[in-house]
Each structure stands twice: as C-alpha cells, then as structure tokens.
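Worked problem 6 (solution included).
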Amino acid sequence: MPASAPPPTDRSFLGRLSLPEHRFLTDALRTETVGGVLLLVAAVAALLWANTPLKDSYTAVQDFHLGPAALGLDLSVQHWAADGLLAIFFFVAGIELKRELVAGELRDPKAAALPVIAAICGMAVPALVYTLVNVTGGGSTDGWAVPTATDIAFALAVLAVIGTSLPSALRAFLLTLAVVDDLLAIIIIAVFFTSDLNFAALGGAFAGLVVFWLLLRKGVRGWYVYVPLALVIWGLMYNSGVHATIAGVAMGLMLRCTTHEGEEHSPGEHIEHLVRPLSAGLAVPLFALFSAGVTVSGKTLGEVFTEPVTLGVILGLVVGKAVGIFGGTWLTARFTRAELNPDLAWPDVFAVASLAGIGFTVSLLIGELAFEDDPAQTAQVKAAVLAGSLIAAVFASVLLKLRVRKYQALVVEEERDDDQDGIPDVYEEHTPEYHLRMAAIHERKAAEHRQRAQLAGASRAEGDRPA
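Solution. The predicted structure is:
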C-alpha cells in the first residue's frame, strides 16, 4: 500500500491485514489457486468426455459400483466422489472455519459483522431470486439452495487465468465470504437434505466423534490412529442418513487452531497444510470430473435459459450473488459507519461480489441432492450451474480488468521488501528499526556510488591525456 495508508491497527473495511494473516492468506490461496486450475481442467475434461463418442464409457465409469455392501457402502464412483472425496474438502473447510473463529478475521465480532452479513445476504438473495423465478414461472422450488454457494478455488483459478492478482484485503474478503458460505452450505445440507435417520448409526458416529475429540484433548498423535477412526465415523455418518460430508466438518472443527508456548503453528494449521493439497489437488477435481459431465446441445442450452428451474439457478448465481453481497456490504458499512479502505473503491467490492457468483463444487453437490430422484432435471441443473458460473466468471473478469493496473500497483507495494528481511515494508515502516536499516542500506549504496564516481573520473582523466 502507499506510504499514506493507515497503520496496521486500523480496522477500516478492507483495511490492511495483520502480518500473520497476510502470510496465512498467501500460503492458503497459493494452494487453492493451483487446485482451482486443476478443477477447471477436470471440468473441461468431464464436458469433453461426456460429449464425444466416448460418452458411454463416461456413464459406465460414473455408475460403476464398488465397496463393501455388508457395510452399506456399495456405492457408484460418482457417489464415492460426492460423499467420500468431498468429505476431505469439508474437513478442510471445518479447519478454516475454526481458525477464522479463534485466530482469524472472524474472531472480532465487530470486524466479522460486515463479511458475515455480506455472506448471508449473498446466500439469501440468490435463493430468493431462484424462488421468485420458479414461483412466477411454475417451476420447482426444490433447488432454491443450488445458487447459494461460492467456489473459492474456481474463483481463484479465474483470477490466475486472466492474470489478475487482487490486493490482500480483497483476497481476504473473498476467502472470508467463502468460509462463511461453506458454513451456511453445511447447515443447509444437514437440515434440508437429511433423509430418514438411522439413530443407531447416528449414535455410533457421535460416539466416534467423542473419541476423536478425547484423543485430541489427550494430545495423542499419529495418522494411523486418526485416519482409521475418521473412516469409521464417515461410514457411520453415511449410514445414519445425515450427509456424510458433515462428518468431515465436525472433525475439522474439533482441531485446535491456537498456538501454545513453543509452537510455531497450531495442530489445526499443520494438518490443514498437509491435507489442503489432497483436497484441492485430488478430491475436488475428481468430484468435478465425475459430476460436471453433462451432455451439451443446442436444445440443452435453449432449455437452460428458458426453463424456470435452470433460469433461476443462472440468475441466482449471476445476479443474486452480486446484488446480495454488494448490497449487504454497502448497507452494513453505511449503518455501522465503517470506512472503506481509501486505496479501494466500491466498484472493487462489486467486482469481487460478481466473482463470488462462481458456484461450482457445492452448487453441483446441492443440485444432485435436491433432484436426486430426477436424473434428467439433475443434468439440466448441472448445466445451469456451469453456464451461470461461466457468465459470472466472464462478467467479473471484465470488471476486474478495468482496475488491473491499480491492483498490480497495490500488490507490488504490499510485497515490497527493500530491507530484504523477509517482511513486507508496509508492516515495518512505522518502526524506527526499519528506517535505521534502510538508512544503512542507502549509506552503503552512496559509498559504492562515490567510489564508482572516483573510478569513472580517474578513467576519464586518463583518457584525456595527450598521447
């Protein structure tokens, strides 16, 4: 940020992050960006596979069953991807949420109010848009939750593809939105998409979670203890009728995300660092590969933009997300008198709100749950999610490109480290030690240039002597 920017203690909306938050954000989003690119590749591969002469093999792989039937786990490959692999994704989401609540931007209720309200509005308005479209158009209201989710990995992949690097404040806002979004999506899945309960299996899953928590409290270490226990908890949760991904969230929330004396990183951060590449690089792309493969034709595209269910999904993602997040943010800032970072403008907030309309992974999952008894409608909803996410991505890209030079200048200023101590200068420019180091650096450079001037003068004098 420019030198005139407020010191790190300033809590204005989209103000500067603390140094630990800046470092965590940079590391987390680097992994998510790589995962987002893989997700994009997987989605394209699924579409190509499902729209070529090999489409029968795509369906065959999707429907191929494996797993122990005696344990109620004889599932299709597509089912394993949605209920099994996404449990890893939601495990990481649980850790992220726990960390944000105890050590991140959500730990301060005043600071958390604005992004939380923005995220809630960013889910409520798309649901309202979908419902209005389907009530007036005579469609099904079962899919109201489909356009409510934001896919942070896909959004970051779009940023990587268009070559736009957002300032850390905007990236943190987008990540916080996604974390709260994930929490609300988890609640929606648990409350609205739970089938008939098997109380014996649910009780077993709960007992397993208690054991998991006790082992953590006792400080027991070793993946060979926790991984088998996690698989048992997941299997019991699946058989209970509650969506199995809830098990991943619950275990993630149990991890300690605060550091004790002598610890550089908390156990939660350490495990997240290990598991996040597995989630972003394998679990989510494989889910996309076996869920995004829909047959695309002129008829399909026509129906996507005319049928109330699919039109509601598209308008919810493209219009509902942007209006909900931006409107919630603007109204909250207005009533709380929160001042926007002077280096940014409200169009920047609207661009990020539009980018949040990319609702891929969780939207596809909710679409499958909402219309699981209607495969044809499920396929149309998936096509609508893809179309809506694509439109939101293109629209947001245009808005972000209009301000790309401003963003690049802010990012360069944020990362500038003239004293080369590994800490960006913006976090040190208010300390005397930083200026003393810079003075010593400039003095050494000045002495070097004086020496070069003397050598240049001597060389010139030597050249001016008569032969």
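Discussion: Strands lie at 65-66, 75-76.
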